[in-house]
Amino acid sequence: PGCPLVALKCMKSAPEAQRAHFQAEALLLKALRHPNVVACYGCVQPSPIKCHSVDLPDLMFLQEYCAGGTLLDKQLTGSYTALEALQWLADVAHGMAYLHMPRPGLCITHRDLKLENILLSDQGVAKVSDFGLSRLLPPVPVEPRTPRVTPVTPRAPVSMSKGGRDMTGQRGSALYMAPEVIMCEAYDHKVDVFSYGVVAFELLTHSRAYADMDLSEEALVASVVGVGGHALRPVPPRRWPPSVTKLVTTCWAHDASQRPEFGEVVSSLEALLEQARSTPLDEPNALLRRLAPLDNATPASACCTLQ
């Protein structure tokens, strides 16, 4: 009685490098404590002895059990309101602000933020999870620079080191990747802000980004990088309030230095939530009405000027 349910993440018959990566994720998670980050309780290496002819995994770690599933589950069913979407986005921004917070000279970059990696507790609180691609790096701001706009075909990961940062390109899910990741350039924690912009668009529109584009993944990611001063991005619905459109589009700005910090994102969302809750529940709210998705509407994607 009183013991919380836990989820087990298991690894079986993995090479040594993958085992080390798994253990590193467990150690990283165990050190984190925030209501919007999935808690990890420890890593276990079971005895090699077989139990009742059942092969045990090589490694297991115990983490917080989130009964509400993922935000992708919610987004695919569309069973949520605009107010819930804003609250979940605020939850995620709080969790990411905590991860990016400098700690002994380091901050944590998630590198794989997407709807699948955001879980919901049984009380509907959104929590950032799956830190398998996370890295520790010095919190060095990205210097303003002229974006490279030559599209490239995605290639194998290469290690990049610049200005005290040591990050690797071509990690994470392609459609959430920032241009500097696709281009295998050095990057910092602002890649998570880019991914967050795509998450916000998908959650608020009840649709997947670039769903209207009949392109191969390689052609799509090349278009996200941009050519001739333009890059492909989803188009926010015209009915959205300007404050919401600005928040989402600045998050996926081409130039990382133009993207906000998560602390700024939190402030923007708290203001939106206050506005959304400013009317009684039984009365229509102008903000929520403009954010509510239209039936059978598929958001478009289009080229925009690089920022």
From TrEMBL:
Region Disordered: start-end pairs: 144-166
GO molecular function annotation: ATP binding; protein serine/threonine kinase activity
InterPro entries: Kinase-like_dom_sf (IPR011009), Prot_kinase_dom (IPR000719), Ser-Thr/Tyr_kinase_cat_dom (IPR001245), Ser/Thr_kinase_AS (IPR008271), Ser/Thr_Kinases-Pseudokinases (IPR051681)
Classification of source organism: Eukaryota, Haptista, Haptophyta, Prymnesiophyceae, Prymnesiales
Residue ranges with Low complexity bias: 147-158
Pfam family, one: PK_Tyr_Ser-Thr
Residue ranges of every copy of the Protein kinase domain listed in the record: 1-273
Protein name: Protein kinase domain-containing protein
Matching Gene3D superfamilies: Transferase(Phosphotransferase) domain 1
